[in-house]
Amino acid sequence: MRFMIMHKVTDQMEKGLPPEPAVMEGIGKLMEDGLKQKVFLGGEGLKPTSQRLRIAYGRGKRTMVRGPFEDGGELPAGFALMRVRSEEEAIAWCDRFASAMGHDVELFLGPVVEPWDLGMGAKPAGAPLRFLAMHEADARSENDGPPDPALLAKVGALIEEMTSAGVLEAAGGLASTKQGARLQWKGGKRTVIDGPFAESKELVAGYAIFELPSKADAIAWAIRFGETVRVDEVDVRLMQQP
Question: Which of 42, 169, 173, 207 has its CA 20 to 30 A from that of 114?
Fold first, then answer.
């Protein structure tokens, strides 16, 4: 089973401050352990919400709002990690995705934190930009119903085109929140809430993908993940099987 573990934004992250050395060391150790156990598949951090866009498609129109966002209202149903030359190109691929979906859809688009953003080496000349797009859950995605074959064909064709163009690094859909869990830290106490759960006030600040035997294993890694990055909230979401 494949799980996406997402940690939420903190005030320090919103200010664009680099993680403390102890946090960086902890993240490195977590990734190292995950790779040794052959369960860690990848992950990224996102830049502050001041550098993100909320893009809504409805009634044939596109509306874009640029952050910062104080109230995210975000409940992802899927994601795409893109390598592009500009933000405009990333938006154009979002347009294509919305067209393939064939119904109203809302996305969050944000740039990914790169090693040189954290002072780990110089930025390579001509380095592409990477953006994460996450589309929002709706009644369709929360029902866990069988996907529409025509919709699958359209999205599949777009994924193939993006992959051939060297744009798509990773993509995936998420099962409903009924199959997930939310972890919260407050007042020195940790709470685990089984799904379904509602959208969160906090936006996603980063994620990690794990291949694990069970939801209980995913929650165990999420606890370690949340305590390593020192956040107040982490979501565990089962990914849809290919």
Answer: 173
Residue 115's CB: how many other CB atoms inside 10 A?
Answer: 11
Distance between CA atoms of 230 and 103, rounded to whole angstroms?
Answer: 38
Looking up tokens 């940690």 gives 7
Among 4, 3, 13, smallest CA distance to 232 is for 13
Question: What are the pLDDT digits (tens) for 33-56?
Answer: 999 999 999 999 999 999 999 999
What residues does 104 pair with on adjacent strands? Answer: none
Q: Per-residue pLDDT tens for 69-89?
A: 876 667 899 999 999 999 999
Q: What is the 3-state secondary structure (H, E, C) of 73-86?
A: CECEEEEEEEEECC
219: nearest Cα among 188, 197, 190: 190
The closest alpha carbon to 6, from 240, 178, 233, belongs to 233
In this structure, the chain runs to a length of 242
Q: How far is it, in rounded angstroms, from Cα 177 to Cα 171?
A: 18
Task: From 6, 174, 159, select the one nearest 82 (Cα to Cα).
Answer: 159
Distances (CA, A) of 134 to 27, 38, 45, 77: 23, 26, 13, 7
Rounded Cα distance, 137 and 42, in Å:
23
Contact between 178 and 234 (Cβ < 8 Å): no
**Is the distance from CB of 142 to CB of 199 less than 8 angstroms?**
no
- What is residue 45's three-state secondary structure? strand
Classify residue 51 by burial, with Cβ atoms within 10 Å: 0-12, 13-18, 19+.
Answer: middle
